[in-house]
Structure formats: structure tokens, C-alpha cells
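Project outcomes to date are best conveyed with an example. Our students and postdoctoral researchers have been running inverse folding experiments weekly, and each run begins with a structure described purely in C-alpha cells. The record below, which covers 132 residues, was selected by the lab manager from last quarter's runs and is presented without edits.
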């Protein structure tokens, strides 16, 4: 797990962003071709189907691990007290559909807001004031 900030997302990576109701599988704009092939079974990032969907079942260890992480997160959320929903998975390319990208980015709650400070910076300032 990493902080929910776009500053932490490296462009060659693949990330699961999950808020308990919706899951996004974020594909960085410079995602490693072997990563794309292992997870999605296609040669190029542009061939990955974006939007609501699922990760295809492929016969390789990495694909199985990615699907297991996604399923474990869904199971954890759906088994919660009073939960009757299972999160939907949306596949997002960093340089893809702008509205889907923006939706996923709204979950990155530690990003700076309109020239302000990030959540981590704000907590640091608050901590300093409490110590004084």
C-alpha cells in the first residue's frame, strides 16, 4: 500500500485503487510491455480494453497474482458488515479516456488541492502546531 497521491504513481507501473465501492486498475503511460503482456495478454498498452471490465484469465503466475489481489480486495469489501455490493473494476490508462482518468484521480485524496498543501504537508504543519 502507498499513499493516495498521484506523486506516488510511477509511469511504468500498474496500480489498484480501491475505495470499497469502486476499483480502478491504473496503467501508467510508460507501463513495461512485459507487464502488459503478462496481465492483459496483449502486446501494447493501447490494445488494453479500458472501462468497466475484468482482468482476463491467463496462464501465468503474474496474471494469477494480480487477479488474486483484486479478488481478495473485493471479498474483503463485500464481506463487511452490512455490505451488499461488490465493487466494479474499471481499467484506466494514464493517457486514456479523460473522464475515466479523472474519476480514478478523485480517489487520490492526498493530492494537493488548488495550489494548497497535500494531506501529508497539512498533517506536518498540524503536528508542529500541537508540539509548540
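After processing, the design step wrote out the following sequence:
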Amino acid at each position: 500500500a502507498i499513499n493516495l497521491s498521484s506523486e506516488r504513481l510511477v509511469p511504468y507501473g500498474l496500480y489498484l485503487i480501491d475505495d470499497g465501492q469502486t476499483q480502478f486498475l491504473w496503467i501508467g503511460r510508460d507501463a513495461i510491455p512485459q507487464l502488459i503482456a503478462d496481465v492483459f495478454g496483449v502486446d501494447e498498452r493501447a490494445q488494453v480494453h479500458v472501462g468497466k471490465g475484468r482482468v482476463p484469465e491467463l496462464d501465468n503466475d503474474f496474471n494469477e497474482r494480480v487477479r488474486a489481489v483484486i479478488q481478495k480486495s473485493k471479498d474483503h469489501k463485500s464481506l463487511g458488515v452490512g455490505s451488499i455490493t461488490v465493487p466494479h473494476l474499471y481499467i484506466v490508462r494514464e493517457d486514456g479516456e479523460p473522464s475515466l482518468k479523472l474519476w480514478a484521480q478523485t480517489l487520490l485524496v492526498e493530492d494537493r488541492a488548488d495550489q494548497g498543501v497535500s494531506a501529508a504537508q497539512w498533517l506536518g504543519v498540524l503536528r508542529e502546531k500541537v508540539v509548540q
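Residues 22 and 88 are 5 Å apart (CA to CA). The chain has a mean pLDDT of 81. The training component of this project remains on track.
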